[in-house]
């Protein structure tokens, strides 16, 4: 059974750690009005639903659900990334990934599924279990699975200690059951590597957590950045992230240049 609008808004307020007064102050409404909405004594207007959702940083997909629960039509579209209506965004992603070569880069959806990748990503995808490359390819699974490229990550404990809390924050922030299931799955992979201790402390000289991976007898060292679409008004685009890897040392820079040639 679908939850009423008041319960949904209260759940999001709890998730964000806000009191009714906190939310009221942020949304410039009275705490009494917030209380009446949450208890069902008042059905909020369409604009009020959107105002409260904005202050609660509710994802666009969930905003549509809030609107439906309040009796209004959803306003945020969701289309496949290769839909003609998203042609410009798709082309932009391709240009970003190609322009980053000879360094690896990929585009992911909100569940860590691979959408696009450039040719340089082969240094990560090389020699993994073909079953893990069956669509949809999940990069969180691929990176931490014993049959993925995890055995080639030299600082796997550090990488796991970074990625798992990041995924846990996503689960807490979105309440997404698919992300929750993915978290429980990859958390269990640690046993395959005897991961029972604490991860080494990162080197203070590093500008970001490095990823050290072996590739055909060579060791490559990367750091990464994440780019998202600003002010996206499409559910698909809101969930897209581009992860770009940069060489963290001269040896990696030279080797990637040689591989491209």
From TrEMBL:
Gene3D superfamilies: 3.30.450.180, lambda repressor-like DNA-binding domains (1.10.260.40)
InterPro entries in the record: Cro/C1-type_HTH, Lambda_DNA-bd_dom_sf, MLTR_LBD
Domain HTH cro/C1-type positions: 9-63
PANTHER family: BLL4672 PROTEIN-RELATED, BLL5781 PROTEIN
Name this polypeptide is given: Helix-turn-helix domain-containing protein
């Amino acid at each position: 059974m679908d939850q009423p609008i008041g319960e949904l808004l209260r759940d999001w307020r709890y998730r964000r750690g806000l009191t009714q007064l906190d939310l009221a102050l942020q949304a410039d409404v009275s705490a009494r009005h917030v209380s009446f909405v949450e208890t069902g004594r008042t059905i909020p207007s369409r604009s009020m639903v959107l105002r409260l959702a904005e202050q609660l940083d509710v994802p666009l997909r969930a905003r549509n659900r809030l609107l439906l629960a309040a009796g209004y039509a959803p306003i945020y579209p969701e289309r496949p990334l290769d839909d003609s209506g998203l042609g410009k965004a798709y082309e932009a992603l391709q240009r970003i990934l190609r322009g980053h070569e000879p360094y690896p880069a990929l585009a992911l959806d909100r569940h860590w599924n691979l959408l696009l990748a450039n040719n340089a990503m082969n240094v990560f995808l090389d020699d993994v279990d073909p079953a893990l490359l069956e669509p949809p390819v999940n990069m969180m699974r691929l990176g931490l699975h014993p049959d993925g490229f995890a055995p080639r990550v030299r600082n796997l404990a550090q990488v796991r200690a970074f990625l798992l809390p990041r995924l846990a924050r996503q689960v807490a922030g979105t309440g997404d059951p698919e992300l929750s299931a993915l978290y429980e799955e990859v958390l269990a992979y640690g046993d395959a590597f005897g991961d029972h201790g604490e991860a080494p402390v990162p080197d203070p000289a590093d500008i970001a957590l490095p990823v050290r991976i072996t590739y055909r007898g060579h060791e490559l060292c990367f750091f990464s950045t994440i780019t998202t679409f600003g002010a996206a008004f499409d559910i698909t685009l809101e969930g897209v992230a581009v992860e770009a890897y940069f060489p963290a040392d001269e040896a990696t820079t030279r080797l990637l240049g040689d591989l491209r040639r």
